[in-house]
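Step 1: inspect the first sequence and its tokens.
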Amino acid sequence: MKARRTCPLFLLSIAAVVGILVGDLTPNLIPEWLSWTLGISGLVATIALFGKKCPVIGSFVLFLTIALLFSAFHVQKLDHLDSFVLLPNLNRGQTIRVTDARATVVSEPRFTGSGQRRFGRAVLKIDGFRLAGRDWKCHHRFPAVFEIMPEELKYGDRIEVSGRFEPLREATSPGAFHEKKFHFRSNDAVGKFYVEAGNRVDFSGENRGFRVVHWAHRTRDHLESALMHGIGHHPIETRSVITAMVLGMREDAPEEVEDLFRLSGTMHIFAVSGLHVGIIAAFAWFMLPLFGISRRTASLIIIPVVLFYAVVTGLRPSAIRAAIMISVVALGFCLRRPARILNSLGFAALIILILNTQQVFQPGFQLSFAVLLAIAWLANPI
């Protein structure tokens, strides 16, 4: 009862997680149209029950309703992934060559070579392709590998490219990297796209990237230049670790350096966490009053600052979680409302899961929220 009154958003986030897990395990349990109908009906019933002062029953109905809606939302995503026309071929391990694939670059390209061998990777959202003299539509995402990636390729570019669809590999031994599961959960991908050297890559001149992401990338480049001031003569290994620690930029880090950190158990150094976001917020909190800005105004300024920093550092789940929680605390300060850590944590989880239900299955999401949840529960008893 106390948790329902003081931390309602935390309970709703649990309902969302339960619904997503049920939808993932039993996608055909309830027809999609019935799930949406029951979910909307449940919202109406919840409002009626609270209006009749039946908070306990209303809370129970609301919990089931949120679980049902998130389950339907996740099943809808899974149905979309299963709708890829070449999925049966990929499941049989076949490779399919296509031409005139129309795609948008939806991630920052990562180059891993130099000179004539600019091997690179990016995530492409392919809208259509040509196969066997016929045009096909798909609207799916694929991790793409370029044997020679164009230097001018950037986030948001519209391109036409020829290549081949390949199946994602499964783990070859227990505990080994499971490429298929990783890209399915992190990129909503059911296969990968391979562009060989010499394949056509044409730019349409159009860019469909979000403007705020472009601003974030430019800001990140300026910050990187500032960080590198005075240490440009140092080896790339040193510089890449610094940029990864501060800005989450792993694009320039040599793979052998990442392997060393991974094997030593210190790969978390490369991850931008909530601590980074907290440092930015604390810096703004103490610096802004020095310029005559009131605390209430400073708390409002902090909100867009931490949200923009989360975008600059690559929208990591831990950074998003921290930015949302700090925004809630700052807004509560303006409204003179006390912030509750579990409620703020639940609100952050709901926002992230609305944006992408697959985050439930990401280790970064799980560890980030589990650690903070443990702190919230055990801090006072300890």
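Step 2: inspect the second sequence and its tokens, then contrast the two.
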Amino acid sequence: MREDWVEIELGKLCKFSQGVQVPKGKQYTEDIENRVRFLRIIDFTQGKDEPRYIDKPNDINIVAKGDISMVRYGATTGFVCSGISGAIANNIFRIIPEINISKRYLYFFLKSPIFYQMIISRIKGAAMPAISFGLIKPIIFPLPPLVEQKAIVKKIEELFSSLDSGIADLKKAQDQLIVYRQAVLKKAFEGELTKEWREKQTSLPSADELLEQIKEERQKYQEQELSKWKDAVKLWKNEGANDKKPAKPKFIKELISLTDDELEKLPTLNKYWHWVKADKIASHEASSLKAGPFGSSLKKEFYKESGYKIYGQEQVIANNHKIGYYYVNQEKYDSLINCAVKPYDILISLVGTVGKVLVLPKDCEDGIINPRLVKISLNKFYDSIFFKYYFESAFLKSLYSLKAHGATMDILNLGIIKELPYPLCSKQEQHQIVQEIESRLSVCDNIEESIKESLEKAQALRQSILKKAFEGKLLSEEEITACKKHKDYQPASVLLEKIKAENKQK
């Protein structure tokens, strides 16, 4: 510490007052005469909640915009509050300097890593961290001359302004990447990304040919399954028909095709593409489009530590099939066999984080889906990764209103999923589209990682600036010399003597 600085305990420099406790019944949404804004933690940390007002309390609990307060307890313990006027709540306390020092200097000190390190060891309560006046008062405050305090504040604000400008540019770039990502996906699913590739191909099936191939494949499958069933019934009869008769196979039901009116509202596709519903991209079994079982069919009392895995939203949202430790036994698995999954199945979340997609890999565990998921088993004409990119895109969400009357995709069910429009093109082109998407998005990922690192460095630099400020190392020798030449310059020891004199008079 420099010779013209002194150290003083915060308790000898400031006084502290606790906020007011106001029952919810005494908090109002209207601001009228004799009421004042009631400042809660959320008003400082987020500022998005509707303002509350209370009958005007004692003035000691009212803060002006430049006054300093701090959160006393909770998840944001130690958060420094400033910039709003009103009456603070009882989980916030006010910090009032008792002598002529710069409030902004004190504010920046309370935001600094030096103060944070001092306070972190003093916070009490593991379940609910808390700060008391008694804990904060002994903390040592580095006090420079008042002229230098103001010079330090000015330099901090200049450096922070430059940092904030850079951070704003980085965040703008992040926003632009989001827009670019969605633009890539939109072009991909309108066939634009593969336009040149498509023109070079000589054997691509048209959309009508693809639909005919799907129809023929499905008819062939059904004929084979019915033939197997008839053979099984014949054998059953020959053996005396004593056991349960083999069940007749069930197949996926055809949906009503998109109407001309619906197609008119969709982007126009080239001759190799077609808009279809989910039945045209799903496999041929009835269970290929399946919602999870009713809750009563899969209560927690059925859960086991091993057996067949229960897939839920946690795996889908995390895009990780390996997490989760809920299982059912063989009997429960057999009773819910229509909800069983297999490699490359699509799992879609229905609640909370809606519309997320997990593609099960080849080595996934045998299991079933829970009531919060839908599973789709795709036919051989549709690629699972192509589906995931499409279903999670803003492009699909922009088309969602066709079936939801202008709503946003904040709810989802099997009925909606069946009726949504899906772009159908050849499997070769789907693979090419996935390559085109991933080559572009990998560039985005690299840029985004670089932006993230830059933002982290900016935050570290902000803390470094504050640390240097309160170690007396932020100002240059020229700036310090200019402070000492100022007409109002006095060593901090003069301020300290004033504090001591005032304390003696109390």
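Step 3: confirm your contrast with the notes below.
The longest strand covers residues 92-97. The two ends are 30 Å apart (CA to CA).
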